[in-house]
Predict the 3D structure of the following.
Amino acid sequence: MHGPRPTLEAVAAHAGVSRATVSRVVNGGAGVRKSLRDRVQASVAELGYVPNSAARSLVTRRTGAVAVVIAEPETRVFSDPFFAQQLRGISRELAACDTQLLLMLLEGRTDYDRIGRYLAGGHVDGALMFSLHRDDPLPSMANASGLPTVFGGRPGWPGAEDDPDLLYVDTDNRGGARQAVEHLRRRGRRRIAVITGPLDQTSALDRLDGYLDALGLTEPDPALIAHGDFTAEGGERAMAELLDRSPGLDAVFAGNDLTATGALRTLRARGLRVPQDVAVVGYDDLEQAAWAEPALTTVRQDIQGMGRMMAELLLRRLGLADASGVGRPAPVVTPARLVVRASS
Amino acid sequence: MHGPRPTLEAVAAHAGVSRATVSRVVNGGAGVRKSLRDRVQASVAELGYVPNSAARSLVTRRTGAVAVVIAEPETRVFSDPFFAQQLRGISRELAACDTQLLLMLLEGRTDYDRIGRYLAGGHVDGALMFSLHRDDPLPSMANASGLPTVFGGRPGWPGAEDDPDLLYVDTDNRGGARQAVEHLRRRGRRRIAVITGPLDQTSALDRLDGYLDALGLTEPDPALIAHGDFTAEGGERAMAELLDRSPGLDAVFAGNDLTATGALRTLRARGLRVPQDVAVVGYDDLEQAAWAEPALTTVRQDIQGMGRMMAELLLRRLGLADASGVGRPAPVVTPARLVVRASS
DNA sequence: CTCTGTGGTGAGAGCGCTTTCACGACCCCG
DNA sequence: CGGGGTCGTGAAAGCGCTCTCACCACAGAG
């Protein structure tokens, strides 16, 4: 069954035409008479011809593949369906354009060399990069190699905002956080604490800014802020700190749902009732949020859609997307929406 | 910075040798005098030469890439960190052998054609396939195309076990389930119910068999079995069914942790105490299991390790792995271990 | 009837690499 | 000192494809 796969040559011979004609037909068939085109297509079908992508990309200088780089050595990737959902969105969009998805998961610092070399090596036409921290070397690598790149989340490195060609997809973290905290205020909460995420990520920073916005502050009250790391353990710890420092707090805005889960755990351990004594709001609307006890009020974002948009942006920059996306590709910020449940 | 990338030719000229010699050096340097080798390596470094993979695989007939096919149109992928962890294991192993990971997420039935064509098209050297249900067309596609393939989970299609070349990595679902149920019996539980997973997957079947083993049965008691689908909602529903049918049950073995979470929810809603009234055991040891209320007794498996092993098996079959793995590659079944927590 | 288009087709170069093969240098043994 | 190795190196032939360019046939204009 799987002997030597037929080549263009074989199809040409079978159809009684030249290689060039077969090539034309395979690539859209423009400028080939209908009768010939049909004959060639029949031969292609009969022989089960599939173009050799290596040969093709050798001459076209395009690989038909895009790298998805996830630089998250932490355990976060495991517990957080975030990436899985984004990947699905990306995968769907790329598949529609017959583009392959090359997944690169970074572990240690040494991986950066490997990835950098790979990206610079012209093995892919573009890259999607995720969860970069402020000092991540990846963006500059991509930039230096001239590889078209779209970032997941607003890039935070110095000067990023000034680059007119920078492409990213972010969610309105600041607006979402503002909604969450305004909601707490409307419910009559007055001592609203915050547990941040890692502040070298713009998402965590933006959420903190949204919190400040809603309270009309420019600086957080030192007694009502604690730093987490977007994990449940971090949330547990930070909540404990907050309670020790400010026993009178009546609400907490957690940097994400995992953090909120940890906070709930600490509150339960200390015998505080949610939401009667302390209201809790998370962020992300993970599936677990709805299942938490009590069900978590949180902020929802269209994660899968963000993935799809990243892919679309990149495809447009590569000149591959459908004509639907008109104009120059530009950064996208998607809306966030409060989901009120039992915890607030 | 990113003008035309240097070719072999350029390096050869720079080092004052022939293309052939540069090629030899780049590919290990066997049979090249030390002095020349050093000179070539210096040139490679200076010019920043990276081999063009398209050209290389055109002649070697190897792509240096492996497809990871995840056929799970359900929502399961989202809520379950299972795949993320396996992917990490796979990624790590492949990276060590400089092999790329091509991720293919299947959605609808039409995707099967696309993937089938792609796999048959010689774009990858091998494939890893996940979560196949009994009637999945993918395996036969892979088989027909002669593409070396390793499966995640024991394949369940008819005749699978007879194929001496079949490669898979599975965990000892039956043994794990047996441990879990024996544990419940040791704790004095007598009416132990079971919530199964989707029975077209071998993992769900094997866990059910392990349950039967531990109870010394060949047939489940119809009053003590309910069918779930490996989701929390399914667990919730199945638990309700069981309680309606057998109010006197004192323990339940859930097909996986998500199912167990749902069961916990139903039990709580009905005012039953866990573990006093009903003991609950899950399977998988997801992070959420430890965080459930009460913390879930469950069965742990080395998920990341399974991913690593799948990759290793494939690499060995492709003749790429280190010499460490001696002998013919063969299916692997990894052990499962009971983790006792508060819920039982 | 010749000249200029026009549209369809084929010949052939060449993408950057690996790999065979031939060749020269060198060594050892007789 | 000559024959038969071994070892290291370079020349060159492709791998399967795209794409330029030349070519041919035919149409319409002069």
